[in-house]
Every structure is written in structure tokens, then in C-alpha cells.
Design goal:
Shape: globular
Number of helices: 0
Radius of gyration: 13 Å
Largest sheet: 4 strands, mixed
Order of helices and strands: EEEEEEE
Number of strands: 7
Number of domains: 1
Strand order of the largest sheet: 4-6-1-7
Structural class: mainly beta
Length: 87
């Protein structure tokens, strides 16, 4: 993923707990829940820092979208296999 380029990662998660482990090139891991009836379906955040408390900790089941921005000064390899550029 090139620096400063937004990236959309569409997901289709079912109910339950989700843990995104800390990959070698990120300084954090992310834990959240997927539940029927949750209002949020999208997360927007920069990759250089852990998502803040302003993001919901529960996303609705079915279809979710992570809109990520690589605000690091370097390219993050492998992202082109997982999603697509925002546009």
C-alpha cells in the first residue's frame, strides 16, 4: 500500500469476537465484536496508530468496510492482495 493512499477493505464477517493480530509492520493489534443490530458498518483510520475510542467497538454483521490510510512514510507490502484503493 503506497504512502498516503486510502485503501478500502470490504469484509463480510458473522457475529462474534474478532482479533486482528499485530502484523510485523504495524505497532498494534485490534479487537472488536460483530453483532446483529449494531449501528456501525465502517471504520476509517490511519494505519500509523491504533484506532481510537471514537471508533465503535462493535460492527454490524454481514457487510463491513475498513477504510484505511497508510500515513507512514513507507509502502506497506501485501495490501494489494486484500482490498482495493479508495476511489
Amino acid at each position: 500500500m503506497p504512502p498516503a493512499r486510502p485503501w478500502r477493505l470490504p469484509l463480510s464477517l458473522e457475529e462474534g469476537g474478532v482479533s486482528l493480530p499485530r502484523p510485523a509492520n504495524l505497532p498494534y493489534a485490534v479487537d472488536f465484536r460483530v453483532a446483529a443490530g449494531a449501528a456501525a458498518a465502517r471504520w476509517d483510520f490511519p494505519l500509523s496508530r491504533r484506532p481510537g475510542d471514537d471508533l465503535p467497538s462493535t460492527l454490524h454483521d454481514g457487510s463491513q468496510l475498513f477504510a484505511l490510510t497508510n500515513d507512514a512514510p513507507m509502502e506497506m507490502p501485501g495490501a494489494d492482495r486484500a482490498g482495493g484503493p479508495a476511489g
